[in-house]
Amino acid sequence: MNIITTVREMQEQMKSIRNAGKTIGFVPTMGYLHEGHLHLVEEAKKQNDVVVMSIFVNPLQFGPNEDFDRYPRDIEGDEKKAETAGVDYLFVPTVSEMYPSEASLNIIVTKRVNVLCGRKRPGHFDGVATVLTKLFHIVSPDRAYFGLKDAQQVAVVKSIVDDLNFPLEIVPVGIVREEDGLAKSSRNVYLTPEERKEAPALYRSLKKAEALIEEGELHTETIIKFISNELQEHTNGKIDYVEIYSYPQLEPIATINGTCIIAIAVQFSKARLIDNIIIEK
Q: Is 37 considered catalytic here?
């Protein structure tokens, strides 16, 4: 595995790969890798000649109450996991390498951001859009892979690529789960033993709602109330949201129709968990 830290070298290496007629699959991350990230690599390896992963904790997507310095980092462990997973090129730039001077422009995302987690994180997706625009130019991949655990991010990234005509395909990858259904996340380690027993109720409530829809219940208000009751009954966490939108547009809907997302977020004592399912009706 090649580890690269500068933009110039990364661009030169990627140019030589493209000139050789090889395809590039790209997995952008902020590090602290877990099985969800490695599953993205697995999918990228199936469809591309070369797999590139970036590890960069992007300061632009942290809000005023979010501590950039406390974000978990384990670069040595990440390098080992990436190499074992089969990553060919690992791009690990510093903040000064990615942002050497004050930017002369701002990227502002105006759609798909004021719902779900984005509602409470103003400016977050502006930072995501900025760093991904830079990374897409640096790596020039054929395909980029994103986990559907953060389905809102997938929807926003898809809109960026479409609006700016990036010549690449966004590949959404399904959520990786524990045996009991809990979505894998680095945050899961912060759950108490009792909360860990309760946490699978998030996915169970979504699957029960899906069964309810299959039985003919299409009113979103009824489905939201059903999920909320399930979460209140089976967890001691505080419900942050239970919401249903069209997908990937993330527009409010009164009845289930077409492709939609049912998304939930629950705050436990030291961890906020999110989960979702995408429904085709």
A: yes
